[in-house]
């Protein structure tokens, strides 16, 4: 098992799928990286040579924002939206859907899993306290 930007890459999977375990890299980007390295995407991660692992590691670290760096950028973008009090920022603050989805019937995961039956009884899924 080898590590790239702090993530253990599973050895028993094909390398294009294994690279998608890194936050910010999906299968299409993984295939693009492998094409750049001239590595067959069908081989397993355990079959990579050390020089191939280093090539992949260098390309990802030098060319792409992944893991902590990407999470930090997303967090900063949301904080900026909240600070300037724009509509999207307000939706983030109120924990409502941001991209125009309807909220009358859907958005259970965002608003909480509260369902009201015909008798008026409210059923709430138990959630751990936010401490």
Polypeptide structure, described:
The chain is mainly alpha-helical. It has 6 helices and 4 strands, in the order ββααααααββ. The strands form 2 sheets. A two-stranded antiparallel ribbon has the order 1-2. It has a two-stranded antiparallel ribbon with strand order 3-4. Strand 1 (2-4) and strand 2 form a beta hairpin. It is elongated, with a radius of gyration of 21 Å.
Give the topology, please.
Layout (H helix, E strand, L loop, with lengths): L1 E3 L2 E3 L5 H5 L7 H11 L12 H14 L3 H17 L3 H7 L14 H4 L2 E3 L5 E3 L7
Antiparallel strand pairs: 1-2, 3-4
Helix pairs in contact: 4-5
Strand order of the largest sheet: 1-2
Number of helices: 6
Mean pLDDT: 87
Structural class: mainly alpha
Strand content: 5-15%
Shape: elongated
Order of helices and strands: EEHHHHHHEE
Q: Could you give a short account of the major beta sheet?
A: 2 strands, antiparallel
Low-confidence stretches: none
Report, as a whole number of angstroms, the end-to-end distance.
35 Å
What is the helical fraction, as a range of percent?
40-55%
Give a quick summary of the entry.
The chain has helices at 15-19, 27-37, 50-63, 67-83, 87-93, 108-111, and strands at 2-4, 7-9, 114-116, 122-124. With 131 residues, it is mainly α.
